[in-house]
């Protein structure tokens, strides 16, 4: 899925999931939605009015690898 298609996609019916690593502290949670083909959307779990970030499969793989390597 290309980047333009990701941002044109309607997210009103996607299933959002909070990370199992999130705790109950307010303002420290994100939610992820699977968009198919490895693409995902990421949003603030406390403010759904903010536009979710959207990642292609390659972008998401690079991002999560960077998090695991403590690059962020």
What this model shows, in words?
The structure is a single chain. The chain has helices at 3-8, 57-68, and strands at residues 16-18, 30-36, 39-44, 53-55. A 4-stranded antiparallel beta sheet has the order 1-2-3-4. The longest helix is centred in the C-terminal third of the chain and has 12 residues, at 57-68. It has 72 residues and is of the alpha+beta class. It starts with a helix and ends with a helix. It has one domain (3-65).
In short:
This protein is of the alpha+beta class and about 70 residues long. The chain has one domain.
Q: Quote the distance from N terminus to C terminus.
A: 25 Å
Largest sheet: 4 strands, antiparallel
> How many helices does DSSP assign?
2
The radius of gyration over CA amounts to 13 Å
Number of strands: 4
Mean pLDDT: 88
- What is the number of domains? 1
Strand content: 25-35%
Widest beta sheet: strand line-up: 1-2-3-4
Unreliable parts: none
- Structural class based on helices, strands and sheet pairing: alpha+beta
SSE sequence, one letter per element: HEEEEH
How do the strands and helices of this protein lay out in sequence?
Elements (H helix, E strand, L loop, with lengths): L2 H6 L7 E3 L11 E7 L2 E6 L8 E3 L1 H12 L4
Question: What keyword list fits this structure?
Answer:
72 residues, 25% helix, alpha+beta, 4-stranded antiparallel sheet
């Amino acid at each position: 899925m290309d980047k333009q298609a990701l941002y044109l996609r309607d997210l009103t019916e996607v299933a959002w999931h909070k990370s199992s690593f999130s705790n109950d502290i307010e303002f420290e949670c994100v939610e992820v939605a699977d968009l198919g083909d490895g693409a995902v959307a990421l949003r603030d779990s406390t403010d759904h009015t903010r536009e979710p970030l959207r990642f292609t499969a390659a972008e998401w793989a690079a991002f999560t690898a960077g998090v695991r390597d403590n690059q962020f």
